[in-house]
Amino acid sequence: MKKEAMFYEMSKEKVHCFLCPHNCVIENGHTGKCNVRTHEDGKLYTINYGEVTSVSLDPIEKKPLHYFRPGSQILSVGSFGCNFVCGFCQNYDISQFKAKSEFVSKEELIKTILTAKNNIGVAFTYNEPSIWYEYVYDCARFLKETDPKAAVAIVTNGYISQEPLKELLPYVDAMNIDLKSINGKYYKALCGGSLEPVLKTIETAAKACHVEVTTLLVTGENDTLEEVEEIAKILSHVDPGIPLHLSRYFPRYKLENAPTDIGFMRKAEEIARKYLDKVILGNI
Ligand code: SF4
């Protein structure tokens, strides 16, 4: 469903969106880099409001969140669109394309969350939730007002501006944030983004809710022990209690590099443990 977007202003016949650090300036009839925010005659609209492409009751560990209400299940929902263009995206069919979706109103979603058996709440995941902002914000707020004990989790690339992030955080209990690399060139070349805003998101979120971080170790791109050590060191400066998931890469979408070497992953885990209390290997 089309809905007027938050976080934009008009200037010189163009719309300036400041939901994410791309800060797109969009001409009439065009969309932003995320492909889900479009300028129509002086207004910015989000086109994926309430549009659900995927829904599943998942173990919380699958998000991955290993230290937030472990052993529980969470209703996980996603839409389409992303503000990154990672060549190795595992969910490229919904992140890079306008996948088939079904409209689910805020009220319907909250009813499903509250009536699903053995469910602790909702996780916004699969595609990038930050560019599904208006729906995520409305649902998270409505759920917390209806049942403050219900959990809200966000699985994100962390590429969101500070103002929208801070407005959303009071309704969020847990986040898993990707820290894809500690190298700005990697972010630019492989993801079409930048590193600094992601680090800022981790810092801000860690003060407000439970945070875990995921790094996908991509063969030939960021699989060096020096890089893993740097990631662990930086996270330890935020909080050495932040769990770090080192995740194994498999060829997907546009990237055909070999899967991550498991021997390397074990060494990476050892190095990261010098700085962080909790390091978890994923996808192995
Ligand atoms: S949310 Fe979309 S339109 Fe807005 S700045 Fe980011 S990429 Fe551009």
UniProtKB/TrEMBL annotation:
[4Fe-4S] cluster binds at residues 82, 86, 89. Keywords: 4Fe-4S, Iron, Iron-sulfur, Metal-binding, S-adenosyl-L-methionine. It comes from the Bacteria. The keyword NADP does not apply. One of its GO terms (molecular function) is metal ion binding. Signal peptide: none annotated. InterPro entries: Aldolase_TIM (IPR013785), AmmeMemoSam_rS (IPR027596), Elp3/MiaA/NifB-like_rSAM (IPR006638), Organic_radical-activating (IPR034457), Pyrv-formate_lyase-activ_prd (IPR016431), rSAM (IPR007197), rSAM_sf (IPR058240). Residues 67-278 form the Radical SAM core domain. The keyword 4Fe-4S applies. Binds 1 [4Fe-4S] cluster. The cluster is coordinated with 3 cysteines and an exchangeable S-adenosyl-L-methionine. SUPFAM superfamilies: Radical SAM enzymes (SSF102114). Its cofactor is [4Fe-4S] cluster. It holds the Pfam family Radical_SAM. PANTHER family: PYRUVATE FORMATE-LYASE 1-ACTIVATING ENZYME, PYRUVATE FORMATE-LYASE-ACTIVATING ENZYME. This is Radical SAM domain protein.
